[in-house]
């Protein structure tokens, strides 16, 4: 059990920080518990990062020497937990956003593919129509030529 927890358990009165800096002197990882205390209070995530909150090994030394009985280590644990929860929510939201964007892109791609496919079919139909028209024109021209020849022969016979 940490000293901070004992402070709460035995209902020891907490006083404001007097900036004595005793907490910093006993920190094994050379943190500045005083600063971490301020920024934990206002939950300033960036400043807590600046002051290396996550390097805190939660030894409780700072809480045990604090003449104001501030449950420092408990504050730091809570701040870490709150930050991790917040970051996890942010990560989840970002993942959901990315999933949504990917899905939208996939839907748009499928739409474009359909439009392209439809345009290809329309082009092919137009080509087929053109080929058919050319064939019909060629047949009509041939029929007309045969008819002309027949008429010429008929005229020659008559003259
Ligand atoms: S609880 Fe954290 S801040 Fe306090 S002395 Fe230990 S390592 Fe340093
Ligand atoms: S030991 Fe307590 S009173 Fe002294 S600076 Fe640290 S937090 Fe403030």
Question: What keyword list fits this structure?
Answer:
single chain, 159 residues, mainly alpha, 6 helices, 75% helix
Helical residues, percent: over 70%
In terms of DSSP E residues, the strand content is: under 5%
Distance from first to last alpha carbon: 133 Å
Number of strands: 0
**Residue runs with pLDDT of under 50 for 5 or more positions:** none
Q: What's the gyration radius in Å?
A: 43 Å
Could you say which structural class the secondary elements and strand pairing correspond to?
A: mainly alpha
Give every kind of bound small molecule, once each.
iron/sulfur cluster
Major β-sheet annotation:
none
Mean pLDDT: 92
Count, helices: 6
Series of H and E elements: HHHHHH
| Shape estimate | rod-shaped
Question: Describe it for me?
Answer:
This protein has 159 residues and is mainly α. The chain has a domain of 88 residues. The protein is 75% helix and 0% strand. It contains six helices and no strands. Helix 3 crosses helix 6. The radius of gyration is 43 Å and the shape is rod-shaped. The protein starts with a helix and ends with a helix. The site of one iron/sulfur cluster has 16 residues, from helix 5 and helix 6. One iron/sulfur cluster (SF4) binds next to helix 5 and helix 6.
